[in-house]
Design a protein that fits this description.
19 helices; four-stranded mixed β-sheet; five-stranded mixed β-sheet; 598 residues
């Protein structure tokens, strides 16, 4: 596109309002640029090695930096260097990866560094990788990282577990070498063609900081990122400010040539120093109505994930309502790379296990759930039924797949229950277990309105099967902790992809990830063998066939009942410029501007 065409596109998209000059400098110097919005669920903390919830990861991805990052404007996705000088040098059939760090990048100032500026070096990434293997941290990401097979780290972890001694951060391992200050060399046991995705999400931490703050490290994040944590009131308010020591970095991106919106944003921002914002304030508002009203009342600049209760009011027919369009709001509606599912605890004596009767119970529950009604009533039409574990937009997803997961067949569900001895022996209207003992299903849930609506539908479906359901309501973070520790029977939860590879979704069935990504605690040697095989293969027909096998095993044993893939809508006030919904990543604050109101 020539400049005139770009500017015309920008105007049509509302990116260059008539009152806002298109320059490479802020509109009014000295005006603080603040982005305010609300999270729908409380965070857990800010140590990348110890978190797995979306809301904590959103914050961490702006505090810490990976070796690589996703291009803010490129669609489809593009990975480019962040703290690395270039893409990795790869050899030995994807077993040897060499990365060179950019000199002159510094961690934010912190007392842990003794008052001097601390440069980021290759050893920081080596240390960060080691932390995921420290048994004391019980890192949710360790099992996924272990599948990358860095030589020596598994043995170092096993040694610590066997001896019951602290993890040895100083013992050399053959798979992590730093031959000089700025070079990191990673050696793997097996070929791992997609290690680049891991390196993109690996935020460097400094050993001095971790050792200074110890058990309080979740509250003391110190990274090289564009923002730093200024204040934190747990489950209430998180305030981040521009990192004053952030290196000179300027807006650049590579949108597709035919991407008018992306090209317009590039024309507007190219050359602007990052981050453009001075401060970000995140409130935690779990109830949908006050979150929605805070945005409508302009107390918030951005609405992250439009509450389902207001879908028909805000985006009837999938388009922004006229009364909101008149206010120049902008809606960003896309099919999310996510999935919702019911998790069954495979260690639970009632719903767990691999015996035919236990499998039959889980499959009957699944067949008795009216997912279409869930989509229509509770999700206001903003979802599609899930047919398998892999999520849309990721490698391995098959949009043509049709499976039992998409069926609603209560008659078949009742027949399964009858066949395997789940019958009502005492005439009270509720089925008992095959041995005659009471059958009570207990499911963790939350108190927000959407959860309550989903619970009501779930219970109605199980009532129709003669299955008694009790709900145990708590906070999301508490439910996650209980689930990881195996202290639950059932839980309904959502999961969002954090890389372009669909194997991440299949990790929830991998035995090596029990208590981490594998919340169901499912262990099946046949599945593990398929999972390990696909890990080593490059993308192609052979690997895609393994995706099909893995999906079939999960559907057959049903440690999870998949529900839906959601449509997600974000809405921005007219003064928020440059937002583009991320696909597999969370970092975007540094690439947007918030203009002065008025």
């Amino acid at each position: 596109m020539d400049r005139r065409t770009l500017l015309q596109a920008a105007g049509a998209l509302g990116l260059l309002p008539s009152a806002v000059p298109s320059t490479a400098e802020p509109l009014q110097r000295g005006d603080e640029r603040v982005l305010r919005y609300a999270l729908r669920t409380a965070e857990t903390g800010f140590d990348p090695a110890q978190i797995s919830d979306l809301y904590s990861m959103i914050v961490c991805d702006h505090l810490f930096e990976g070796l690589y990052e996703y291009d803010h404007l490129a669609r489809p996705f593009k990975i480019k260097p962040c703290t690395a000088q270039a893409l990795p040098e790869i050899s030995d059939d994807f077993r040897s990866w060499t990365i060179r760090i950019k000199p002159g990048i510094h961690f934010q100032d912190d007392p842990a560094f003794g008052g001097s500026a601390r440069e980021l070096v290759a050893a920081d990434y080596a240390y960060t990788l080691r932390r995921f293997y420290d048994p004391a941290l019980k890192s949710p990401a360790q099992s996924a990282l272990e599948e990358q097979g860095i030589v020596g780290l598994r043995e170092l972890r096993d040694e610590s577990l066997a001896s019951r001694r602290p993890f040895d951060y100083d013992k050399p391992v053959a798979g992590l070498e730093t031959p000089d200050r700025y070079t990191l060399r990673i050696r793997l046991r097996e070929p791992r063609p997609r290690l680049l995705y891991t390196l993109t999400s690996l935020g460097a931490m400094a050993r001095e900081v971790v050792e200074r703050y110890g058990d309080q490290i979740m509250a003391h994040p110190v990274g090289t990122g564009p923002f730093r944590l200024q204040a934190w009131r747990r489950s209430s308010l998180i305030t981040l400010v521009r990192n004053p020591g952030y290196r000179e970095r300027f807006f650049d991106a590579e949108p597709a040539a035919d991407d008018a919106e992306g090209q317009a944003l590039l024309a507007r921002f190219k050359g602007r120093r990052l981050p453009m914002l001075d401060r970000v304030e995140l409130s935690v508002i779990e109830e949908a109505q006050p979150r929605w009203l805070s945005f409508l009342n302009k107390e918030h600049d951005f609405l992250f994930q439009l509450p389902l209760e207001f879908v028909r009011l805000a985006i009837p027919g999938g388009k922004l309502a006229p009364h909101l369009a008149k206010q120049h709001l902008r809606a960003y509606r896309e099919a999310a790379s996510d999935i919702t599912l019911t998790v069954f605890n495979m260690d639970d004596p009632v719903v767990g296990g691999l015996q035919p009767a236990q499998v039959a119970l889980r499959r009957a529950i699944g067949l008795g759930l009216n997912i279409r009604r869930e989509i229509t009533l509770a999700r206001r039409g903003e979802a599609i039924p899930a047919q398998g574990a892999v999520v849309p937009g990721t490698y391995g997803y098959d949009p043509a797949l049709r499976s039992e997961a998409g069926l609603y067949d209560p008659a078949r569900a009742r027949a399964l229950l009858d066949t395997y001895g789940y019958t009502d022996r005492n005439g009270d209207g509720w089925r008992e277990r095959p041995d005659g003992s009471p059958l009570v299903l207990r499911m963790l849930s939350q108190s927000d309105q959407t959860s309550r609506q989903l619970d009501e539908l779930f219970k109605k479906d199980l009532d129709a099967l003669g299955l008694r359901l009790e709900l145990v309501v708590g906070q999301w973070a508490e439910n996650l902790k209980a689930t990881r520790n195996g202290r639950f029977m059932m839980w309904r939860v959502g999961s969002t992809a954090n890389s372009p590879d669909g194997q991440d979704a299949l990790e929830r069935g991998f035995g090596g990830s029990v208590g981490k990504a594998n919340l169901a605690r499912f262990q099946l040697p046949a599945f593990d063998a398929v999972y390990r095989q696909m890990t080593a293969l490059p993308d192609g027909p052979q690997r895609l066939a393994l995706f099909g096998q893995a999906n079939k095993l999960l559907l057959a044993y049903e440690p999870y009942r998949v529900h839906v893939h959601r449509m997600v809508t974000d809405i921005a006030q007219p003064w928020v410029i440059g937002y583009r919904k991320p696909l597999f990543w969370n970092g975007w604050w540094q690439f947007v501007d918030v203009l002065p109101r008025g």
